[in-house]
Amino acid sequence: MLSCSTLYDVPAPAKLNLFLHVVGRRPDGYHQLQTVFRFVDLCDRLDFERTGDGLILRDGETLPGLAPEADLVVRAARSLQQASGTRFGARIRCAKHIPAGGGLGGGSSDAATTLIALNRLWGTGLTRADLLRLALPLGADVPVFVFGQSAFAEGVGEQLQAVALPPQAYCIIRPRAHVETAAIFRDPDLTRNSESVKISVFTDWQTEHRSLFGRNDLEATVSRHHPVVAQLLGVMRHAGLDARMTGSGSCLFAGCYGIAQARMQLDRIISKIQGSSVEQVEGFWVCQGLDDHPLKSWLD
Question: Quick check: is 141 catalytic?
Fold first, then answer.
């Protein structure tokens, strides 16, 4: 018998791409990638109420003009309904803290948390492997949040291997730029032939170096489309930070030894931004890197 009908304040963490290489393009047009995902403690928060009518109702913030059928949270819930055959429905509320369209994976994380939480709330009993199969059709970034660990990813992002990462905090800055991911991947000047690397090459680098491995192949293209991204990267790097764009942008990040250093570095960056021509900043955060997804144990 199910012991509860509600789950409150369930976290959906943001992610960073510590590097992102485009290593090829498939015949169907999808790009082959290599990347390392790391979760951080900037989280959306979701509430779930189990209902008996089979309806999926979405409350709280969503993107303007987004139809329910296109909402990833709704799609995730309906996918789990269909796969499990449950007759339960749900009322879902999402409090957004991860900025949309910043390369931090907020929508994908919300979808994964919905799969994990409703699997628990509905008592459907699906395994992590089952939920991973439901996650990929929802989006290339959704599987890693179900996978639940820092991961070296290949393919379109669905081939995942757990990877150990050193403790780190991060300062994250959001430029005032809305990046259209599809337009970046369509750009004829986008690098699509980076050399593939083995996971061992990345792990050896982590042991021997303090700097970020590789690069983000999308960064140069995004910077051409959105000069403010290039300007803010310049400010961060001039301040001595090993700064990089995450995902398809526009958020920028730099790793630090701990939260105190990250706060100090962010203060330095903000003072430099205020004293320069770069004023197009929408937000900034100091975050702790996580080894595991906060809900990992729910599927263990």
Answer: yes
> pLDDT tens digits, residue range 82-141?
999 999 999 999 999 999 889 999 999 999 999 999 999 999 999 999 999 999 999 999
Amino acid at 81: Q
Of the residues 15, 47, 110, 217, only one is catalytic, namely 15
Set 44, 47, 130, 141: catalytic member: 141
Strand partners, 16: 38
Q: H-helix or E-strand containing 41?
A: strand 31-51
User: Which residues, in sequence order, are CB contacts of 149 under 8 Å at separation 6+?
Assistant: 162, 163, 291, 292, 293, 296
Q: Which residues contact 36 (CB under 8 A, 6 or more apart)?
A: 17, 18, 19, 150, 151, 152, 153, 163, 165, 202, 213
Active site residue 15: yes
In whole angstroms, give the CA distance from residue 2 to residue 86: 13
The beta-strand segments (E) located in 136-280 are 151-155, 159-162, 169-175, 243-245, 252-256
Query: Dihedral of the CA atoms 216, 218, 222, 225 (nearest 10)?
Result: 150
**Region of residue 67 (phi > 0: left; psi between -120 and 50: alpha; otherwise: beta):** beta
